[in-house]
Design a protein that fits this description.
2 domains; f41 fragment of flagellin, N-terminal domain; mainly alpha; single chain
Amino acid sequence: MPAVIYTKQASLIAQKGLLGAQNSLANSVERLSSGLRINRAKDDAAGLGVGENLQKQLNGAQQGLHNVNDAISMAQTAEGALQAVTAVAQRIITLATQGANDTMSKDQRSAIVFEIDKLRTTIRDVAKRTKYTDTPLFNFSGTATMNIQVSNQSNDTISIGATALGPISVDSSTSATTAGTSLTTAAASTAGVALDTKISAAVTAAQSASTLVSSVFTDIQAAASTYLNDIITQRGQLGAVQNQLEYTVSNLSEFSNNLSASRSRVMDTDYAAETANLTKGQILQQASTAMLAQANQMPNVILTLLK
């Protein structure tokens, strides 16, 4: 290397080394302070794309987990209502069986009809009252469904329809508000209309001067038995949906855990490796600074030639 003054080549080399050491040190400090290996695209362009796609999936799975848990709570609310309605239907059948017995007097049968009518009102009230976050649960009819979004994929849904959330009385939907109204909905609603009609006829007979005959109660028996069978079927469908939702929760939980681990391997800082890089950068910075100081002193040798 020639002895010159204006171009300090050794100093430039030392400056380059110092700049590289400072950049490496700054990267290590940023990664250790943020906890992320990739803080901007230049750190790892391909890795950033993979990490953000994994984050998208993870966000969808975690929100889907919340959605499905909400659906389980909704299904449990509906199941509780159907359980109550089942007990009411059983009581109606018992009362109708009692009223069909010819040992009953007209007054006794009228009292039975009065209780049955109150139970019919109870079923209507349950149908109107059962809501989840202001969403009526027993008014899905025909092909109408409640869709539960499971992930960020638009077609990844669980459908709950009229087989599980169909009308359970004539008051289940706004289109049916009077006794005997015909509903073109699920099987449970048809039985509900039949039961409502038979009870209405019994109330009319009890209010008239005519004798309440046993056939009035056998008609209620038959209608209530059909209604009970349909409610049991609806409960079974709702139970199947609950099982599906619970298995989905298990799958989503495992899926989220695996996605989190995958994203971590791409995006998160490995502190063991990065602290080693930090130490290396600190040593290189100190060495480069020392060498820069030495390089800046090298032109002083020329002074000895001028003496």
